[in-house]
Design goal:
By secondary structure, this protein is mainly alpha-helical. It has a single domain (about 5-180), classed as MetI-like (MetI-like fold). Helices cover about 80% and strands about 0% of the residues. It has 8 helices and no strands. It has helices at about 5-35, 40-45, 50-55, 60-65, 70-100, 105-130, 140-145, 150-180. It is globular, with a radius of gyration of 19 Å.
Length: about 190
């Protein structure tokens, strides 16, 4: 029985969203809290660069040992892959917005820059994790197709991954632009 690429796409999106959405919410809150305090921001902006530079998939073996289940480990890795750039961009945006007379538009632009970057990293991580550990999703489809020399499934999977990545990026870009357009710029300094 042939697998449906649509079901595998939904499976990949589910993994992405279950890890990404909590990372977005928590990352924005933590980033804002860091950004409102100049002293905390100066300390954290350097410290947060360390986990941000580590390739998220490198934590997969550790997550598998800790959680003992591929699904839970996958969600944690997607979460970790997204949260750092969201925190960094939100805190930077909060600092810049405060310097410009509480310019909310600047804050929103930075937050969505972080969200867009994070969704790419999280999407990449979700696909890579599916290739390595899970038996479903677009990553699994591509990996299995390569083992069975089914070139058409590989191409179909790659097209789905690229299309979905582009759609997610554009959705976040559009949302950021709409929100940015709805708020005033604040006081000019």
């Amino acid at each position: 029985m042939e697998r449906s690429i649509f079901l595998d796409l939904l499976s990949s999106l589910q993994l992405l969203l279950v890890g990404y959405i909590p990372a977005a919410v928590i990352g924005i809150v933590i980033g804002y809290l860091i950004g409102v305090n100049r002293f905390v921001y100066q300390i954290c902006k350097w410290i947060l660069q360390v986990p941000n530079t580590i390739v998220p998939i490198a934590f997969l073996p550790v997550a598998l040992i800790i959680f003992k289940e591929a699904e839970a480990a996958a969600i944690v890795i997607v979460f970790l892959s997204a949260i750092w750039s969201i925190i960094i961009n939100t805190s930077t945006g909060t600092r810049h917005g405060r310097k410009q007379g509480n310019n909310i538009r600047v804050v929103i632009n930075h937050i969505f820059k972080g969200l867009r970057f994070a969704v790419w990293i999280a999407w990449f991580s979700a696909i890579a994790i599916e290739m390595l550990t899970l038996n479903r999703g677009l990553g699994f489809v591509i990996w299995n197709a390569s083992k069975e020399s089914k070139f058409n499934y590989i191409i179909e999977g790659i097209i789905c991954i690229g299309t979905m990545g582009l759609l997610l990026d554009q959705l976040l870009d559009l949302t950021g632009n709409i929100l940015s357009g709805l708020v005033s710029e604040g006081k000019k300094s």
